Amino acid sequence: MLGRYTVVFYIVIPLAAITTLYAVLFRLDRPPRSQDLFLSPLLSSSEPLSGSEFPSLRHLCNETDWTEGLWLQCHNNVGPSKTAMRGGLSNLGNRMQTCVRLAISAGAGVIIPTFATRSDSDLLKYETEECPESLFDTEHYQQALSVACPQLNVRACKDTKGLDTTIDAKFRKYLDPSHSNGTFRALIDDTIAESGVITRPEISAKRPVRILYGDPFLAWNYTAAAETDVKNGLFRTLKYNKRLFELGGQVFAALKQTISGPVVAIHLRGETDWPGGFGRLDIQIDLYTQALLELRNSTRDVNDTATIKDVYVSCGNPSAILTFREKLEPLGETRSFEIRPKGDYGIREPGVCGLLHGDPDE
Asked: Are 331 and 246 in contact (CB under 8 A)?
């Protein structure tokens, strides 16, 4: 028997809550110290950041050769302007942080990007763009970056005032190698030189230049660059805004009332706009079921009793979750319930509707 699995129906909860649950609940690398769910201090703390928290990032910035007046704007070639980024909540955060790493490599300032949002009538179309304030605490982000990397200049979203010279860098294709160490700076140097518009020594605060750099995903290889500490430092500079924190807290509180032990969080991709080539629903369900069986067998207690009995399933398509539930039912008792947070968090709320269905590379 698989044990008592709890399938939680995800219908109107945006991915902010799911990201919180992944970070807090899905800790299979080490067993929980108690049977009580707890909220990680990292997610709830509002303590101000200090430079001592970013030793690797500060060292990197101190060693960088900066060019005042050079600005980098990263994008995925989507949205009305074709200079916006796309993706689910975690991807958008990762892309913001990766763009900062690229800017440091180039010795440039960074322009906070816009995010493309999906059409209500056609989920494959990105018709509008928004600034990240609806998702992230950008004020804290800029303050944290100024502490972690004082040399880095940061412009707010859509702030291109005075940047009359724009140069497009070559768009990196999906299978092209990611950048690491000095490869991105070399790309920017070549881009400026080949433009014939200006040379790097001529760039200054009075003659600024904006570089547009686009790629689909994974622009920087932290492993090849041996920069795990730098990546972790960048992660700490960005946090969700108050509204998403509160929403995640509501979901967490609802789970805590029903579940007391470890939880496996599964992000099931069964939305209608999910490309079949990225993994059909039936294949996902089969693989998840196999993984759950293996996990159950490897985490039994001394009495040979299953210690992991609850599964949190998230998906923008309720019928896909029901299909998964039907797959699990023959393997053990299934207790299902639905969580709906308080407040108006409908799937069409501005700033959220585009995230519910995610992105093929989410």
From this structure: no
**Measured between alpha carbons, how far is 352 from 345 in angstroms, rounded to an integer?**
8
Asked if 355 and 361 count as a contact pair (C-beta separation under 8 A), the reply is no
Alpha-carbon distances of 270 from 278, 321, 358, rounded to whole Å: 11, 8, 11
Instruction: Supply the mean pLDDT for the chain.
Output: 79
Sign for the pseudo-dihedral over CA of 123, 94, 289, 247 = negative
Tokens of 197: 């518009």
- Do residues 184 and 99 make contact, with C-beta atoms less than 8 angstroms apart? no
The answer to whether the beta carbons of residues 151 and 64 sit under 8 Å apart is yes
Closest CA to 44 of 220, 249, 291: 249
CA 240/CA 230 separation, integer angstroms: 20
Question: pLDDT tens across 71-130, in order?
Answer: 999 999 999 999 999 888 888 999 999 999 999 999 999 999 999 988 777 767 788 999
* CA–CA gap between residue 53 and residue 131 (Å, rounded): 27
pTM, whole model, 2 decimals?
A: 0.72
Question: What are φ and ψ of residue 118, in 5° steps?
Answer: -80, 155
- Rounded distance between C-alpha atoms, residue 236 and residue 1, angstroms: 42
Q: Please enumerate in sequence order all residues whose Cβ is within 8 A of that of 347, keeping only pairs 6 or more positions apart, or say none.
A: 11, 12, 14, 316, 353, 356
Q: How do the domains of the chain map onto residue ranges?
A: 5-37+259-356, 51-237
- How far apart are alpha carbons 35 and 240 in whole angstroms? 27
Which helix (H) or strand (E) segment is 23 a member of? helix 15-25
The pair of three-digit structure tokens given for residue 311, joined into one six-digit string: 């599964």
Tokens of 29: 């690398």
Q: Which tokens in the block code for residue 47?
A: 């303590």
Helix ranges (DSSP H) in 180-241: 183-195, 228-237
CB 28 within 8 A of CB 266: no
d(Cα 306, Cα 293) in Å, to the nearest integer?
A: 10
